[in-house]
Amino acid sequence: MQQAEQAVKVLITDKVAREGIALLQEQLPTAQIDERRGLSKEQLQAIIGDYHALIVRSETQVTADILTEGKNLRIVGRAGVGVDNIDTEAATRLGIIVVNSPTGNIIAAAEHSIAMLMSLARHIPAANASTKAGKWEKSRFLGVEVRNKVLGVIGLGKVGMAVARRAQGLEMQIVAYDPFVSPEHAQKSGIEMLDLDELLRRSDFVTIHTSLTSGPSGTRGLIAERELSLMKPTARLINCARGGIVNEEDLLKALNENRLAGAALDVFSQEPIRDNDVLKQLVAHERVIATPHLGASTEEAQVSVAVDVAEQVVSVLKGGFPRAAVNAPMILPETMKVLQPYMTLLEKMGSLYTQLQPGPLTKIELIYNGEIASYDLRPLQAALIKGLLEPISEVHVNQINAQVIAKEWGLEIIEQKSTTPAEFANQVTLRVLNANGYTSSFAGKPGSGDEHVETLSGTVMHDEPRIVRVGRYWTDFAPEGRILFCRNLDQPGMIGRVGMVLGKAAVNIRHMDVGPSQRKQQVKGTHDTALMVISVDNDIPEWALHEIGETGDIFGVTVVHL
Ligand SMILES: NC(=O)c1ccc[n+]([C@@H]2O[C@H](COP(=O)([O-])OP(=O)(O)OC[C@H]3O[C@@H](n4cnc5c(N)ncnc54)[C@H](O)[C@@H]3O)[C@@H](O)[C@H]2O)c1
Ligand SMILES: O=C(O)[C@H](O)COP(=O)(O)O
Description:
Bound molecules: nicotinamide-adenine-dinucleotide, 3-phosphoglyceric acid
Radius of gyration: 32 Å
Low-confidence stretches: 1-5, 435-451
Strand order of the largest sheet: 8-7-6-9-10-11-12
CATH architecture of the largest domain: 3-Layer(aba) Sandwich
CATH superfamily of the largest domain: NAD(P)-binding Rossmann-like Domain
């Protein structure tokens, strides 16, 4: 925590409320917080490498190039809802967490949509401009009432529902189209669900509240020539969601051909509008009301989204979890508290495995026993992948990119969960499988080279991880620091032999554990082997490791760093 506070640098490239910045300054007192608005792509690319966090609204385009240059970047915070200006796929690949404020500006967006609706019905903006110009055009601005009119809501999510409720207060009849909302759910709110064509045919006003998504079933171009042709010539269209959901060229044509009474637009496919003729003509059209993406621009919403995102940036920079990650599993804080020691355990087990048993990783079985099995265990899998891969590669694994990286390595993890306890109340077992099933176990002849640690088990005691099984040996040690592993014939004098060499090398022993073999039947006249696990305070010199290996009846001397 201390380290994060000392070195941290946060960059804010769009207008974000002071309250959010004040929160960052208060919670990260030693951090450098820079506000740099109006940066070009090249300028941002040149400086992003210095920063650990980036906070934006919808103006800054956070492209894959910028994220790739963000070598120290751990989080991108979007002070708002829409993340279509952030390449979240690239962020995920690079292990950068993306957070937003999913609820901070819903009311602001809904109220703006209602303001657009009333402005369209009563020609407020044009009447205002005319009156200010000294004219008195009473008959030119004859409006319509919204009472008893049909409002068609496309996308009945958070904003759509808030708009519907407000419009019900205006005594409008609400119909909606949303393939992901059940008619029963809508009915409870007095809303009739229709298919899109029917909604367009019946509505006097249509308001759009879906996200902008691409692909064959995406919302890009959802309202184009065909859909506009289904609308009444007296109908009016409102888009306060995202530019691109409505085909702007087709909309301009419908307005010019008097096939639509009017449109109110807060969002555009190019923002700000610079060199797009269609958009220029649309904005200038006398039956179009245009605002410069003002849906979320209320004092209340801006404070709310800025504080929401600042809190999440602080949490991530201090090593915690955000509450609204766009590209990470959402885990409740209470669950996180239970999982935290198991995350440490899984990371250590993964690291222990790859250090004890280097080799290709293809398939791993992860078995949970006990009450722990009833939790959402996604963070544990990510911790295991981190532990397995970080000792053997340059890759930086975290909760965000773990699954992507595992896939790149061809590593498959299969989970088994049972709330029935195994040897310990809560136990996690790692079994590494090869294409033919389990690899051979610690069954080969000692020192023959064909011995494999195919199984590791661990548990958590008093919030501390313990390794309770390595291969076919029972153990009990904390997976922490430098640990010497060796197998020895299970006969008197073995501990003394190793202890002598370590003493000679001035290596202090912190903890020692001799794990007996699980094998039940002893071959007559032979000794089974045991596993010696010795935690030490300082590095063991090469000559000492060599000497331990040469003492006889001791095999497979390995040091791991956990
Ligand atoms: N103008 C602004 O300043 C402003 C402010 C806030 C939100 N927004 C935008 O408003 C939109 C809605 O935000 P929200 O928070 O309500 O999102 P949300 O995710 O809660 O709701 C979106 C809804 O759209 C539905 N949907 C998805 N695909 C659909 C499709 N093909 N057809 C019909 N419905 C579909 C979903 O099922 C969901 O119910 C987003 O685009 C958001 O970016 C704009
Ligand atoms: O997605 C959002 O939150 C809104 O579109 C608001 O965007 P803005 O923060 O750029 O005003």
